[in-house]
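Write out the 3D structure for:
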Amino acid sequence: MADVSRDEYMAVAAAREIRDGDTAFIGTGLPMVAAYLAKATHAPSVNLVFESGIIDPQPVDLATGVGDYRLAHGSAKVAGTFYALSLLQQGKIDIGFLGTAEIDPYGNLNSTVIGPYARPKVRLPGSGGANDIASMAKRFVIIARLDRKRFVEKLQYLTTPGFLTGPSGREAAGLPGAGPIRVISDRAILGFDPGSKRMRVERLYPGVTLEEVQDHVAFPLPAAPTLGTEPEPDGHLLRLLREVIDPEGIYVGRASAGANSGN
């Protein structure tokens, strides 16, 4: 099955971050698709937790949000947001997924304001459970399309901690989670240098160059010592995405001009 879209690369890459037996805190969009893909393939025992308090659902149709009660179908429990967030506070969440309006080299996130806090140019949704996930989950993954206005040297507001100021930043702040382990973008898979904790390129999508990635980021983005190429999703994974999980293309766009197609 040719013509893999960047959305499909992102969904498959995000699914790979989920391990069998994990308890995963899931949000709307690609994280939801990735979670269902992981559960249908290599991680059948993953337990899915939605911020609305719906636990491990088996919906007939893809929900349009974490509060969509189509998610309640086949769920193990419907308990409310307080219960879902309490699992983070108890250290029971293995992995969470986050989006963002801004991200800096250390994986810190802004989803609060663009511009001065008191008189912002744009008022964003705010933290929701993002700070809880980043602070308390054992690890978390960021899903974000590359854009120089999004990948910035300095945030306009710190909503959610990554590695804060770098090495030992999280520990100094008393945060128990390991922090961000991956940034899944529409051109490359990014990670963090184990020493400096700064972001770096780990794998490029086929047909994408390191220079192209750097052009879409407003801070220096070095390559990992073992820079690789992201493998193309196989036919089985693509069939699951296109025919079972998101047949209407609600979250996962289809490519129209090859694997390097943006959408």
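The first strand starts at residue 23 and ends at 26.
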